[in-house]
Amino acid sequence: MLSIAIYGEKILNQQAEPVTVFDNQLHTLADDMLATMQQAHGVGIAAPQVHRSLQMFIMASNPNSRYSDAPMMAPQVVINPQILQTSVEQIRGEEGCLSLPQERCQVARFESIEVRYQDISGEWCQEWLSGFVARIFQHEFDHLQGITLRERMS
Ligand SMILES: O=C(CSC(=O)[C@H](Cc1ccccc1)CC(F)(F)F)c1ccccc1
Ligand SMILES: [Zn+2]
Questions:
Q1: Residue 9 among the catalytic residues
Q2: What pTM value is reported for the model?
Q3: ipTM of the prediction greater than 0.90, yes or no
Q4: Which atom of ligand 1 approaches the CA of 97 most closely?
Q5: Which of 15, 37, 44, 134 has a Cα-to-Cα distance from 7 of 20 to 30 A?
């Protein structure tokens, strides 16, 4: 398990660095992040939250008490992400953050987004995400820009 940075630690307010080397060390970091996220019962986790200033996160939607219609998806490693397009509609919804334990807040997010990112082997993927998965992506994407939930509370 990796230690999770708590709100107020500098690394959470920094712009993360692009990933340039796709080696075994990156695989190990992804595995460690996934284990840390699962142990903390999260649906996502970003590298800066485990004190690694890298443009990388994991998203792993699963039906939960707050989003019963959330899709069950295999954990996805997202590297060097870009948001290419966004829907006009925004939806307010409840979010939590492993770096802000016990806090929950209502955040407005785009209902759907077109994204481009590299997977763990460096392959580029481009797709439209919507609903809860789009919400997780936007939450984790914020972490890579040094934006936390406190700044997003609407
Ligand atoms: O599973 C959680 C715990 S918080 C969580 O999983 C964060 C991800 C997240 C939760 C809810 C919406 C968007 C992102 C993890 C973080 F902070 F490391 F990114 C949850 C909280 C509120 C609504 C639905 C689920
Ligand atoms: Zn968070």
A1: no
A2: 0.96
A3: yes
A4: 17
A5: 134
